[in-house]
Amino acid sequence: MKCLLHHVDPEKDEQLKGSKLDYLASLSKVREAKEIIRKLKRESERTERRKSKLVVENDVLRHKPKSAAKMEAEVNRRLEDLNRENNNLIPQKRYGC
């Protein structure tokens, strides 16, 4: 009976070990890249939600000056009306009308 021993060439063995190490290093880098991508996606989603909120807030703030200007105009008109009414009442009071 002949014993079959597998003879391993030391040079090829080193090449295989080197290839395996390269493969494991590459696999590690791929996993690391996937983790970075996952984190960046989450950050992007958070940023997008924040951006949406800020767009709404900006729209509200843009309309406030218009509303305030309308309100100011209305208050000024009412003040003018009251001043006219007051000016009309002063002579009536003076002359007892």
Distance linking N and C termini: 143 Å
Number of helices: 1
Low-confidence stretches: none
- Specify the overall morphology: rod-shaped
Count all strands and give the number: 0
Overall mean pLDDT score? 88
Q: Main sheet?
A: none
In terms of DSSP E residues, the strand content is under 5%
Can you write the helix and strand succession as a string?
H
Please state the CA-atom Rg, rounded to the nearest Å.
42 Å
Q: In percent, how helical is the residue content?
A: over 70%
Structural class: mainly alpha
Coiled coil: 30-88
Keywords: Coiled coil
GO molecular function, one term: structural constituent of cytoskeleton
Outline of this structure?
The chain has 97 residues and is mostly helical.
Please give a handful of descriptors for the protein shown.
single chain, coiled coil, mainly alpha, 97 residues, 89% helix, rod-shaped, structural constituent of cytoskeleton
